[in-house]
Amino acid sequence: MNNHEIDYKLYGDDMQFVEIELDPNETAIAEAGGLMMMEDGIEMETIFGDGSESQGSGFMGKLFSAGKRVVTGESLFMTTFTNVGSGKKHVSFASPYPGKIIPMDLSEHGGKIICQKDAFLAAAKGVNIGVAFQKKIGAGFFGGEGFIMQKLEGDGLAFIHAGGTIVEKKLAPGEVLRVDTGCLVAMTKEVDYDIQMVGGIKTALFGGEGLFFATLRGPGTVWIQSLPFSRLASRVFAAAPVSGKSKDEGSIAGRMFDIFGGDRS
After folding, report:
1. Between these two residues, 21 and 52, which has the higher pLDDT value?
2. Structural domain total, the chain
3. Residue 192 falls within a domain, yes or no?
4. Which H or E run contains 94?
């Protein structure tokens, strides 16, 4: 194996975190801001890219590898966590929003997983976090999650996160699954991915499900999330007070409260 072999344990239900156990000299990598806690004896280091051998040697090779991450909306830098002590040490990473953490053993999925650009959380050192371009023009312009997705390559463990409940579906050869574009979390490299327009003008305009959906054709495995972050964010934004006013400030009860000298502070 080219990747560090790490052990892990998942905690929680809807707001999960993963605890990774590192033997001496073992290293985990993670996105900036994903750290929850770590034990004494673990050394942090900020690096260009993912630190894998596939990103090339020398400054320019590392810069080019890190630059590809910017295209996906991620930071130029990642953080490594290395056990420099003499015994086993633990480091934990938390999900950024309610949902699940999915452990992926890349050796069991053909050495490659394609996922949403913001799905990656952490991995064993040696996993390559790269860019996956959708070849079809429809997927490029109307994919919902963007023209570019992440690809995780290697033979070690990687952890991705998604919102709500996660469903893993295994598609038989030729089997087709149609999914809301935001609900697609990840898929194996064999899955054929395209974007199709919702049929019928009334359905497209008034159906409330958007104009496009993802068409996934087997064979392969796909992971679907019930609550995309974009959907969660839009609901929170819609419910947020406008200009610092609470939702009941314009109500009859609110005005009566003011008439009788109520103090809102």
Report:
1. 21
2. 1
3. yes
4. strand 89-94
* Domain CATH code at residue 119: 3.60.160.10
For the segment 63-82, the average pLDDT, to the nearest whole number, is 67
Q: Is residue 219 part of a domain?
A: yes
Map tokens 């050796």 to a residue.
107
- Whether 44 shows a pLDDT value over 60: the answer reads yes
Give the pLDDT confidence score for residue 60 in this predicted structure: 57
Integer Rg of the chain from CA: 22
Whether 115 is in a domain gets the answer: yes
3-state secondary structure of 101: strand
Q: Which domain holds residue 157?
A: 7-235
The 10 Å CB-count burial string (b at 16+, else e) for 177-186 is: bebbbbbbbb
SS3 label, residue 198: coil
Q: What's the pTM value of the predicted model, to 2 decimals? A: 0.76
Alpha helix segments (H runs only) across the chain:
58-71, 137-142, 201-206, 229-239, 252-259
